[in-house]
Amino acid sequence: MSNNTEKLKPMPSLKSDKQAQAFVDTADLSTYDLSGFRPMSFEVQNKTAALNLRLPQSLLDAIKVKAKNKGIPYTRYVRMLIEHDLTR
């Protein structure tokens, strides 16, 4: 946008993939406020193994809080932590 005083429009609430596709196909995204967006990863690999892990309740509670703050299930958060450590 050429003028910093112009207000960006809020993103509309899109209830389906079809609505999202139609919006992206027709909207000028440079006119929308995308500041609330955050990176997202998609899990595409099948989960074929399980891990049973005993840990202190306080640690599990802390994991659940962190996962909730990120908006993901706590099991996915634990998997992400393991994947991150293994790829370093």
Note the quaternary state here.
Answer: single chain
Number of domains: 2
Runs with pLDDT <50, length 5+? none
Number of helices: 3
Query: How much helix is in the residues?
Result: 40-55%
H/E series: HHH
Q: Write the CATH architecture name of the largest domain.
A: Orthogonal Bundle
User: How many E strands?
Assistant: 0
Broad structural category: mainly alpha
Large-scale geometry: elongated
Strand percentage lies at under 5%
Radius of gyration from the alpha-carbon trace, in angstroms = 19 Å
CATH level 1 class label of the largest domain: Mainly Alpha
Could you give the distance between the termini? 38 Å
CATH fold-type name of the largest domain = Arc Repressor Mutant
Mean pLDDT: 88
What does this structure look like?
It is a single chain. The protein has 88 residues and is an all-alpha fold. The chain folds into two domains: 1-37, no CATH class; 47-88, Orthogonal Bundle (Arc Repressor Mutant), CATH 1.10.1220. 43% of the residues lie in helices and 0% in strands. It has helices spanning 17-26, 57-70, 74-87. Helix 2 (57-70) crosses helix 3. The mean pLDDT is 88.
Supply database-style keywords:
mainly alpha, 2 domains
Could you write a compact summary of the structure shown?
Helix content is 43%, strand content 0%.
List the helices and strands and how they pair.
Blueprint: H1 17-26, H2 57-70, H3 74-87
